[in-house]
Write a structure and sequence with these properties.
This protein is mostly helical. It has 4 helices and no strands.
C-alpha cells in the first residue's frame, strides 16, 4: 500500500513539476495556449516545456525510488493525456494547436528521458 501511494505521489509531483511552470508562463505572459503565437514564443516555451518535462520525469523517478522509467512513463502519459484532452477541445473551437502538439511530440518524450537519466544515476 505504501509503495502504491509513493508511486502515485511521485507521478503527480513529476507532472506538477512540468505543469506549474507551464501554467505560470502562459499566465504571466498573457499568451493563450490555444491561440497563435510568435515563433520566438513558441520556440522558447516549447524548449522550456521540454526541460521541465524532463525534470518532471527525473523527479517522479527519484521520488518513486524504484522502476524509474515506469514512473517517468506514467508522468509522460499523464502529460500526454492532458495535452490530448486540450487538443480535442481546441479542435472543436478551431483554435491553434501548437502547444498541444509540442507537448505530445516533444515534451512527453522528454519526461521519459528524465526517467532514463534518473535510472542512470542509480546504476553508475
Amino acid at each position: 500500500m505504501i509503495a502504491l501511494l509513493r508511486s502515485s505521489a511521485a507521478v503527480v509531483v513529476g507532472y506538477l513539476t512540468f505543469a506549474a511552470p507551464s501554467f505560470a508562463l502562459f499566465r504571466i505572459t498573457g499568451q493563450d495556449p490555444h491561440a497563435p503565437a510568435a515563433f520566438s514564443f513558441m520556440a522558447l516555451s516549447t524548449l522550456g516545456g521540454m526541460v521541465f518535462a524532463g525534470i518532471g520525469g527525473f523527479v517522479a523517478s527519484a521520488i518513486a525510488g524504484r522502476r524509474p522509467i515506469a514512473h517517468a512513463l506514467a508522468t509522460a502519459l499523464l502529460l500526454a493525456l492532458g495535452a490530448t484532452a486540450s487538443l480535442v477541445q481546441t479542435l472543436d473551437q478551431r483554435g491553434a494547436v501548437w502547444s498541444q502538439v509540442a507537448a505530445l511530440a516533444l515534451m512527453a518524450p522528454c519526461a521519459i528521458v528524465g526517467g532514463w537519466l534518473s535510472s542512470r544515476r542509480h546504476t553508475t
